Amino acid sequence: MELLAEILITASLVISGIFGFVGSYGLLKLPDPMTRLHAPTKATTLGVGGVLIASMLYFIVLGDGLSFHELLITLFLFLTAPITANFIAKTQLHRNVPMDDLPKTGTGRPWATYESDEARAEAEANRNP
Amino acid sequence: MIHYALIFAFACFGLALLMNLYRIIEAPGVGDRILALDTMVVNSIALLGLYGILRGTTVYFEASMLLAMTGFISTVAYTRFLLRGDIIE
Amino acid sequence: MSPAFLAHDEKGRTMKRGATMFRKILPHPWLTLLLVVVWQMMMNSISLGNLVLGLILGLAIPIITAPYWPNRPRLANLPMIIEYTLIVLWDIVVANVVVAMTVMFKRNRDMKPAWVAIPLDIRTPEAITVLAGTITMTPGTVSSDVSACGRSLLVHCLDAPDPNAVRDEIKERYERRLKEIFE
Q1: Residue A94 lies inside a defined structural domain of this protein
Q2: Where do the domains of chain C lie?
Q3: Is the ipTM of this structure higher than 0.85?
Q4: Does domain C78-182 have CATH number 3.30.70?
Q5: Which of A35, A67, B71, C40 could form an SS bridge with B41, CB 3.0 to 4.6 Å?
Q6: For every one of its 183 residues, what pLDDT tens digit does chain C have, with 9 covering 90 and above?
Q7: Number of A:C CB contacts under 8 A?
Q8: Neighbours of chain B (3+ CB pairs under 8 A)
Q9: For chain A, what is the domain count?
């Protein structure tokens, strides 16, 4: 029983270390600003999840009891990592990508970051006459 | 055996922090700097957790939880400033 | 035409007499339950004192913040929620491994990043937020922007030889289930 827990803890620590490393290595290696966004936000989140699984198992084996703080940390990270990825992607769109590079929305109005405040107020007024 | 795996994980996350620091200094654009800063926050959460395992105490998870709850706000503030010119309108 | 002295909810339907009192005490029942559970997890023990304090917070916070949340989404379908959560967790683990292999071992010129525009069938802002978060968490795709009217989602793919396949898969796997959950 002890040996099984020790093997599981070691495996999760090693896997999480590899994922954390790959996440930041992708930040250096990938060529394009938008592709550079993919690697850290996902791989690093999974790496931290692995560390927290290892610590939960470790403290159960050590006898301190089940602790829910690690689950809460993983939950908060899963909630906030997409928010930061979305905001940074919008910044990249705003500064580097001209509007014609993107596919059309299929409706009358453009993507939200390209529409100015005046155009949005006008579209709202036209929609509810 | 856990001790060696801990040292390996510390080395991996430490190298990841150094790579983020390099990306902050040498960035092709401002989005890369903001992304590297946010990734440094997540790596710090992992390092605090690992240090808690090393010392055998659960008190470092409080700090990890605080960082996880509020660490993304700085990224949101930077990007809102770049997008709108103003953080709170 | 329903009588004016009976209360109406936000969609204009008439409510029964007892329902308004319930609405005033618990504006968001699921949020109350969630707050109680999360408070227990934070305090790391399930005891009567923690339960009472969690209930106080769980009642106070939704009542205080009720003016800021005028329209509640309807969450009706519990088995589908559990199925959706399990599918998302499985996708996160499996696809992260694939992206890690791509990032480490594929050469830079072999990767074909692509922009995909996905027309949406779901209308409520909460459902669109959950869909965008799920698309970002499953590796290979990052949801970047939404159109100004809320009908279309812009997604950036890391390595997509076929953009139409990505769009069809997202619509089939995630949006169909979200439509059943939220409507």
Answers
A1: yes
A2: 17-68, 78-182
A3: yes
A4: yes
A5: B71
A6: 555 555 555 555 655 666 677 777 777 777 888 888 888 887 777 788 888 888 888 888 888 887 777 766 667 777 888 888 898 888 888 888 888 888 888 766 677 788 888 888 888 888 888 888 988 888 788 888 888 777 888 888 887 778 888 888 888 888 888 888 877
A7: 129
A8: A
A9: 1
